[in-house]
Amino acid sequence: MRWMLLCASMLLLTGCGTPSFLVTPVQNVHRLQEIEVQPGSGWSQPKIALIEVEGMLSNVRTGGFMQPTENKLSLFTQQMEAAARDPRVRAVVLRVNSPGGTVTATDTMYEIVQRFRKETGRPIIVSMQEVAASGGYYVSCGADTIVAHPTTVVGSIGVIFNAFDAEQGLQKLGIRNWVIKSGEFKDMGSPFKMLRSEERELMQEMVDAYHERFVETVKRHRTLTDEKRATDGRVFSGETALALGLVDRLGMLDDALLIAREKADAPQAKVVMYKRPYGYRGSIYASSEVPEPRANIITIDLPDGVVLPKGFYYLWRP
Predict the structure, then answer these.
(1) Cα dihedral sign for 77, 270, 287, 298?
(2) What is the pLDDT of residues 144-163, one digit of tens each?
(3) Where are the domains of the chain?
(4) pTM over 0.85
(5) 272 pairs with which residues across the strands?
(6) Catalytic site residues?
(7) Treating both helix axes as pointing N-terminal to C-terminal, what angle do 197-221 and 103-120 enclose, rounded to 10 degrees?
(8) How far apart are CA 145 and CA 149, in angstroms?
(9) Neighbour count for residue 21 (Cβ, 10 Å)
(10) What confidence tier does 288 reach under pLDDT thresholds 50, 70, 90?
């Protein structure tokens, strides 16, 4: 009898017994958590909020197949609002690493930055990482100070609209596209027909208008040494961007945080970030996320911008 009990105990301990389930209560995954990523000192420490502007900027949910998704514009809005509500947040540092995104999402994020500065009176410092091009640069223009690494890709001030024409290819396959429309230009830019000259002119007018808005935004905040060169769509290194007046100084993220502490008169401030639960709690440079617990599934991750919805973009896409 004792041997039978011993064998049964061993089976249970080795996992061959009755299946069991571990139920772990989790927090609301939609609520932002404040995470300390760099300590301060002293009592009742003030804070510097470090907020990411990363990847493709758009007002849509992004993420891999069967992976947690996030709306970049919505997340940015929530993070900036959280910083504005907290009186202990004395300044914000935007860690920008983005080639840009849609015209409207980019412009909205820029306006949010402007509104934060106007309503709170607190400084915003930009720390540019690998890329701060097109829409990434547009958002940066709203800050008090822009710090770029010497090797940061900066610029690409311009607008792009991508389309393709599959009409002749479809004809070779014996496929015809029929469209019933309410106006002459209703299907302008459709991939199923050639773009007529008058349609191209209308598209160009819109691109020119968006580009003018971009340039005026840059000129409002920056004193450029060569406006034509700086705004013709090309990209620059951080060093060249400094010479052109596109950035204020060269440095790393720590330098941007130091400037934020100086402008906020808070030398002992700690650095915090706002993350969803399960977000990676690493250093100030960390950006990858720890996924939520889930069953074993196949996941497919597509980089931002591999497939773009049709539209107008402030985007550097070589």
Answers:
(1) negative
(2) 999 999 999 999 999 988 76
(3) 29-158+224-315
(4) no
(5) 36, 49
(6) 134, 186
(7) 20
(8) 13
(9) 4
(10) very low
Q: What is the mean pLDDT of the chain?
A: 81
Q: What span, in angstroms and rounded, lies between the C-alpha atoms of 163 and 190?
A: 8
Tokens of 234: 């090309």
Give the model's confidence band at 40: pLDDT under 50 very low, under 70 low, under 90 confident, else very high: confident
Q: Write down the CATH superfamily of domain 29-158+224-315.
A: 2-enoyl-CoA Hydratase; Chain A, domain 1 (3.90.226.10)
Other Cβ atoms less than 10 A from the Cβ of 115: the count is 13
Of residues 166 and 238, more confidently modeled: 238
Q: Which residues contact 191 (CB under 8 A, 6 or more apart)?
A: 163, 164, 165, 166
Alpha-carbon gap, residue 147 to 53, rounded angstroms: 14
Tokens coding 67: 């992976």
Q: Residue 226 CB: number of other CB atoms within 10 A? A: 11
Assigned token pair, 219: 């000129």
Token readout for 20 is 């069991």
